[in-house]
Amino acid sequence: MGFIFTLLFLVFSYVRPGELFPELASYRIMLCVGILAMAATAPVLLRGSWFGLPSPQIYLMLALMGAVFLSVAAQGWLGGALLAFEEFGITAAIFFLVVLNVNSLRRFRVLVGLLVFLTLGLVIQVSLAYHYGYMADVFVLEQPLDNEPADEGEPPVVEKRVRSLGVLNDPNDLAQALLTALPFLGLAWRRGRGLRNSLLVIGPGLAILYGVYLTRSRGGLLSLVFLIFFSLLKRFGRLSSILLSGALAVMLVSAGFIGGRGLSLDDSSYGRLQAWSEGLMMLRSNPILGVGFRNFTDHHEITAHNSFVLCFAELGLAGYFLWLALLALTIAQLRSLDQRQGDEKPDQHLSRCLARATLLALSSYLAAGFFLSRTYQITLFLFLAMGVALVAIAKQSGQEIYAPRFLHWCPRVAALAIASIAFFQVFVKLRLV
Prior knowledge:
Distance between the termini: 59 Å
Order of helices and strands: HHHHHHHEEHHHHHHHHHHH
Number of helices: 18
Number of strands: 2
Shape: globular
Strand content: under 5%
Number of domains: 3
Helix content: over 70%
Largest sheet: 2 strands, antiparallel
């Protein structure tokens, strides 16, 4: 039952019944389903089987929850720390529920199928809103363009951008979430099966790309370009992949993929650099625990526009180390599973394909996260959880996967944290001089 409630909790994370139908908000449906899912998962905890899995990410996630709490408590507001813990707890709940309940390839495939189904449902939902006005006040954002009106007194020109509910309320978040389904669609491709491929891969893939187009998201464009780059990298090499993905980006911009918003870098890049500079100053003022979870905009007028800067500014070196370790270890293990060679059994081949799809989704999401503040998003931690679960499944089946030891990965992650902060420091100084 834990797996069923986990899937239901994930469905409600996308559908958001309390927001879609306000009369249901008082029933706290998501909270109730989350509690039921955790209760149904309790037997796994009582058996202690998950502690036997060589997954340091489980303990890192627990420590990250503590860092979120302490980052706010250190500012002298215990009530705010409890609220922060509750907010991040939803993200953590999805992480733990997936890690604990997705314990077989069959369940993993069911989860992937559900994600693709939910993604297509979102595309249909926002397309109806955009073209036919279905709940357009909820799903369509009319955003003024940066350009000035042609004549004084004319109303500003607006760009219609679709969005969803909950954590996908921002068009950029929706675009990134839609694109993460594309690598898993590719798993259904079968050579020489034209009708099947058209129905299960090409048609849904084009629909998802159209949904991304309706978001008019520059972050979505970046995610797509990086997704193409990482998809081509293994087969064509770095240079060819850069050229092909770059050519695709130029073609999409020229075709109006992001509408009339353009890619002007003057004001926006300066604003980002200022935010990064402020993030570094926040780290200096509170080096261990940061300025507090969700407190960046209390110290600067805009958010960091960078997931890494946002993390070390708000959670300090302690939280940044834990967050980076979660990313680095999961990516390293997925790469280890993806790069397996030699004779494979069918399940081993499926594990490798699923690992590659998960790695592509996670990598493209993080690449775009370099320009967007997506440090705590559910989508990110969902794919981290899927990576941890898949590696655990592969290990249980006897496959040899990279098993990190604390004394091996800890200094490397610490060095990565220091190097990344130094990079931002140098980059900001060179661009602001």
